[in-house]
């Protein structure tokens, strides 16, 4: 299955659970694309000892079936540069995810 996950917030437990689900899905043989939008582009700053988002992100990006994209406009509005774990993307890419994925989940 192709799974699209849209993260639009920075609540550490919610983002952590989104990545946990993404990692579990990959282990089940799925392809997962995460799109960060709005506050979601700041997700890395939400990592805590209890909800270690960075650990989940590292695990996620080890797979060839995993991809993270981030809204370029949202990054720019926060004066945030693109990174490997938050690469710049566009609404065109989000639209493509929606078209091509079997399921879309929002967090």
What does this molecule look like?
The protein has 107 residues and is of the alpha/beta class. Strands 4-3-2-1-5 form a five-stranded parallel beta sheet, sandwiched between helices. The longest helix is centred in the N-terminal third of the chain and has 16 residues, at 12-27. Helix content is 38%, strand content 22%. The chain is globular. The protein has a single domain (2-106), classed as Hypothetical Protein Ychn, Chain: A. The chain contains four helices and five strands. InterPro entries: DsrEFH-like, Sulphur_relay_DsrE/F-like. It holds the Pfam family DsrE.
Average residue-wise pLDDT? 97
Name of the CATH first level: Alpha Beta
Strand % is 15-25%
Content-based structural category = alpha/beta
In helices, the fraction of residues equals 25-40%
Number of helices: 4
- Unreliable segments of 5+ consecutive residues: none
Shape: globular
Give me the strand/helix succession: EHEHEHEHE
Strand order of the largest sheet: 4-3-2-1-5
Largest sheet: 5 strands, parallel
Number of β-strand runs: 5
Overall structural domain count: 1
CATH superfamily: DsrEFH-like
How widely separated are the two ends? Answer: 19 Å
Q: Please give the oligomerization state of what you see.
A: single chain
Mind telling me the C-alpha Rg?
13 Å
Give the second-level CATH assignment, the architecture: 3-Layer(aba) Sandwich
Write the CATH fold name.
Answer: Hypothetical Protein Ychn, Chain: A
């Amino acid at each position: 299955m192709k799974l699209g996950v849209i993260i639009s917030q920075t609540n550490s437990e919610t983002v952590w659970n989104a990545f946990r689900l993404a990692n579990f899905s990959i282990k089940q043989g799925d392809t997962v694309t995460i799109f960060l939008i709005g506050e979601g582009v700041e997700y890395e700053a939400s990592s805590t000892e209890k909800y270690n988002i960075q650990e989940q992100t590292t695990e996620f990006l080890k797979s060839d079936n995993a991809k993270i994209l981030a809204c370029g406009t949202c990054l720019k509005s926060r004066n945030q540069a693109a990174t490997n774990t938050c690469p710049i993307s566009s609404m065109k890419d989000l639209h493509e995810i929606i078209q091509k994925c079997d399921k879309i989940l929002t967090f």
